[in-house]
Design goal:
The complex is a heterodimer of chains A (197) and B (373). Helix content of chain A is 69%, strand content 0%. Chain A contains 9 helices and no strands. In chain A, helix 4 (53-73) crosses helix 5. In chain B, a hairpin with a 2-residue loop joins strand 6 and strand 7. The radius of gyration of chain B is 30 Å and the shape is flat. Classes of the chains: A mainly alpha (197), B mainly alpha (373). The interface between A and B is large, with 61 and 51 residues.
């Protein structure tokens, strides 16, 4: 049928092309194809925050609506990372409403200020550069033992979370949080040493 | 060209291979590195890990369906225009119906758009009833009942005119008409057709107006609350159906039937008045609920040292009134928590929060005080 052929054609386009096609035609179905591409990830993200299937499903639909209105306002270059920020902020705002008491939302405790970031920056250590430069090495050495070990095992020795957890006799979750905290400290350390790229 | 789709499918497959532990340590590390680079993927997998593969598949399928449904709604503008048209049609049909029923009388009135007012006005339906009543010589009792009826309908809008008040009596009849009762029944037997029609037409109009409201809401695209509104409207519609049902079943005791129909109308109108802005609360009131709590609590055994304990609970009252996600904020000991939760779950119903006549989910904090007898 003509309809499904069109759909397949749409699905073969990349994000940028779909986005520009949507902008020029205003056809919501095009946006739908684009959104559907990342819907599983948005759902996963919502689950992480709400920990509730129904709430998360409703949120996924709510985020779609937000998407429609926000796209009219902003020029979006990288759809995926913009969607990430949009979804994250949506969930956080909703949660604030749900938890009327001014409880500190736990996941903010991971160190990063989710409200402030408008762009998702890639950490230098993740940039895929196999030449970890001197400044970075120095900063790694300055880390606390646990964080240092996790970073080294993960990035230098390419061990997976499971292995690191076994080696260091701790929970995988702990490993992940040591990695996150370590990276944050590295970032601060690098900024302090005024490294210009 | 189909690279992109393949890539995405690959990613999803990889995701499931990772979560089901089918990768080697090396593969895991490289996947994990990619997750570090892609925090979106990282968070998404974090959340998805809460579900089993089947649950996740089911949910995604459901969401895909919802999205398709949503996409069919397409263009906002068209929807808004359609809603406005429905509104116009609805209002004009309301006016037409009134016109047909009340040739001269009602047209002179101030026909307001408020649901409750129109409910009141149709109850005070004059015309045919007025004439026939006088035929049966109930003039004296009319006066008596007029004052009674006036009291009952103290929250009414402007009375329609001279004839209006007389009809209250028919619909909200009281004990005033003892001797006349048989004759009255006969009167109502004859006249029941009119009020039935009145109620039914009213119910139809209300239902239509509600649909208009529903359409309006959708047009305004209040996200996430659509299902919720549907529920609130359904509750009101159900009441209408009950009212119609009450009237439709014409049996021996006509009086009672018409009475209940009228009362249902008033109740619906009263509820419409109540449903302005309110917090979620026990359906029967907080005082009664507190009584329930103190009467039905079972002080846990083996805590003789304590005479008093306080458990703080938090839960969500959904827009449909369901109690959800009960959790304990503070409690002296596990048995108290368990008992507190039991009291809430097995206790009386809760009514949801309302804002602008729309039911909402609300988080509720409840303090339960345990007293040793």
């Amino acid at each position: 049928m003509a309809l499904s052929l069109q759909k397949r054609k749409l699905e073969s386009l990349n994000d940028d092309m779909l986005l520009s096609k949507y902008r020029s035609t205003g056809n919501l179905e095009i946006l739908g194809v684009l959104y559907h591409r990342y819907m599983t990830m948005v759902y996963g993200l919502c689950l992480k925050y709400y920990k509730d299937r129904e709430l998360s499903q409703d949120a996924v639909m709510g985020i779609f609506e937000k998407l429609v209105t926000e796209l009219e306002r902003h020029e979006v270059k990288n759809f995926k990372s913009w969607l990430y920020v949009l979804s994250r902020n949506y969930c956080l705002m909703q949660l604030r409403v749900l938890n009327k008491e001014k409880e500190k939302i736990r996941f903010v405790g991971e160190g990063e200020s989710y409200f402030m970031e408008n762009e998702v920056e890639v950490h230098p250590i993740d940039k895929g550069d196999n030449n970890i430069d001197k400044a970075l090495e120095d900063c790694i050495e300055k880390l606390k033992n646990e964080q240092k070990n996790c970073i080294k095992l993960f990035y230098y020795e390419s061990k997976c979370y499971q292995e690191i957890a076994e080696l260091m006799r701790m929970d995988e979750k702990k490993v992940k949080s040591h990695l996150q905290n370590g990276k944050r400290n590295l970032k601060i350390c690098l900024e302090n040493s005024n490294v210009t790229e | 060209m189909s690279q992109n789709k393949k890539n995405i499918r690959k990613e999803l497959e990889e995701q499931s291979a990772y979560t089901s532990g089918k990768m080697t340590a090396e593969e895991r590390n490289s996947f994990e590195r990619r997750m570090q680079e892609d925090p979106f993927l990282f968070d998404a997998l974090d959340g998805l890990s809460l579900l089993s593969k089947d649950e996740a598949d089911k949910d995604i399928k459901q969401l895909t369906g919802r999205l398709s449904k949503r996409l069919r709604r397409k263009n906002r503008y068209i929807y808004r225009i359609a809603a406005v048209l429905i509104l116009i049609i609805g209002v004009s049909s309301v006016l037409l119906l009134r016109d047909l029923r009340q040739p001269s009388h009602m047209l002179a009135e101030n026909v307001s758009e408020e649901k409750k007012e129109s409910a009141m006005e149709s109850l005070m339906d004059p015309s045919e009833l007025t004439d026939d009543i006088s035929d049966f010589g109930l003039k004296e009792s009319k006066q008596e009942l007029k004052s009674v009826a006036d009291e009952k309908l103290s929250f009414t809008a402007e009375p329609a005119g001279g004839g209006a008040e007389t009809d209250n009596e028919i619909l909200l009849m009281d004990e005033g008409m003892d001797d006349q009762k048989e004759m009255d029944l006969f009167v109502e037997g004859v006249e029941v057709a009119a009020p039935v029609k009145a109620v039914e037409a009213e119910a139809l109009m209300l239902a239509e107006e509600m649909k208009i409201v529903e359409a309006e809401e959708e047009a305004l695209m209040i996200t996430g609350k659509e299902e919720v509104e549907g529920e609130a409207l359904m509750i009101a519609e159900r009441e209408e159906a009950e009212a119609i049902g009450a009237v439709a079943g014409l049996r021996q005791d006509e009086t009672a039937r018409i009475k209940s129909a009228g009362k249902a109308k008033i109740r619906a109108a009263e509820m419409a008045l109540e449903m302005k802005d309110s917090d979620a609360g026990p359906a029967g009131g907080m005082d009664d609920y507190n009584i329930y709590l103190s009467d039905n609590q079972v002080f846990p055994e083996n805590y003789d040292a304590m005479n008093r304990a306080v458990v703080k609970l938090e839960f969500i009252i959904r827009a449909n009134g369901i109690i959800d996600s009960v959790r304990v904020l503070r409690s002296p000991a596990e048995p108290f928590s368990v008992e507190a939760i039991r009291l809430v779950k097995e206790g009386p119903e809760w009514k949801p929060a309302f804002s602008n006549n729309i039911a909402l989910d609300e988080v509720v904090n409840l303090k339960i005080i345990f007293h040793r007898e």
